[in-house]
């Protein structure tokens, strides 16, 4: 599984960083970005983050 954030869609609400701090971080532009692709133990959390993002900016590739 791969995950990425569409930075042009992200509104910087910080929700994904709160939910999954091991995967997402805020960058200097105030947008979320993925900080690791070691997701094997975090898949369900990452999926929950993607579903929770208010603008669907978190994309998952299976
Ligand atoms: S939840 Fe979505 S909009 Fe909010 S910071 Fe994360 S990627 Fe951006």
Question: Which short descriptors sum up this protein?
Answer:
alpha+beta, Alpha-Beta Plaits, two-stranded antiparallel sheet, 23% strand, binds iron/sulfur cluster
Note down, in words, how this protein is organized.
- The chain has 62 residues and is α+β, with helices and mostly antiparallel strands.
- It has a single domain (2-61), classed as Alpha-Beta Plaits, CATH 3.30.70.20.
- Helix content is 24%, strand content 23%.
- It contains 2 helices and 4 strands, in the order βαββαβ.
- The chain has helices at residues 15-19, 43-52; strands at 2-5, 24-26, 32-34, 58-61.
- The longest helix is centred in the last third of the chain and has 10 residues, at 43-52.
- The chain is globular, with a radius of gyration of 10 Å.
- The termini are close together.
- Iron/sulfur cluster (SF4) binds at residues 5, 10-16, 32, 53-55, 57-58.
- Iron/sulfur cluster binds next to helix 1.
